[in-house]
Amino acid sequence: MNNMPILVVLFLLLGCASQSVKKEVACPANHIKGSGSGTTEQDALMQARAEISSQIHSSITAAYKSTNKQTNESLETKFKSDVRQTTELLNAQDVKLQASRKIGEKVEVVACMSREDAAKPYLSQLPRINDSLNLAIQTELAQSHPRVKKEAAQTAENLKMRQIIAAQILQGLGKHIELPSSSVYDEMIKDYKEYFSEFKFIWGGEDEEISQILLSKISSRYKIGTGSCVKGLKLIPIFVDIECGNSQYGPQCHYIPALEGRSCEEELYFTLRGQRVQGTGERDENDAKRKLLALISKAPFWDNWFEELDKYVAN
User: Fold this and answer.
1) Is the separation of the CB atoms in 25 and 108 below 8 Å?
2) Of 8, 89, 167, 195, which has fewest CB within 10 angstroms of its CB?
């Protein structure tokens, strides 16, 4: 019983010592402090770096709340996903170990990173981001090819998000950054929306059975128009014949899928092809043809066709 007060005192002393390395050790002015613990000093230092990174993350979130009115909903969603990846310390080697102490089986550390060092990677990145963003914007505005226009707009949106994040990281680190005017970016967004609001898929097939099956399958996924093409993508089946004959397995009919995509001005954008689809009848060619027609809408080539057609649909 007499030993109990001594054990309590020792426990309290150890507790105080454990806390002191974190609470009592200070970093120089204009530095970010992080602390951590682990079985080794390296493990503890990794925790300290993560804590510094978390503080930068907090500064981004706070800065974003005051500026999110400048961004649209898609950028806001992208911000929330991209910010998690961006807040990793790009120059973790500049985190300096300030204090280290072994407490029982654990090592406690305090590390410091100057705000200047934390800002360097983003100060270096931002001019390149600005240049790439401007190029993507100009590409979207100059292009009439729908797929290239869409890809340029997506690139610009990604770069705009990276620009916002980099600028807000720097703001959180005490660096005031004046970003280029967003008026050209806003012009691009308006141009993109107007272009695809008028853009349509136009079916260029005839009344053949194959053509109607292809149209039915494509229209189950996309809105398809008919008639004259003003601004859109013309979809033209270029092989609609069914060939039949006898085989060792009985009457057999086959179809080789092929579809062209053209501009309204007849510029060829792509030619889609697929593996031969065939049906085998038990009685006659009509039976084989009926089975072939039933198989076309379930054939594996549609995965590749839809993958290509998706590139021409606005987000």
Assistant:
1) no
2) 8
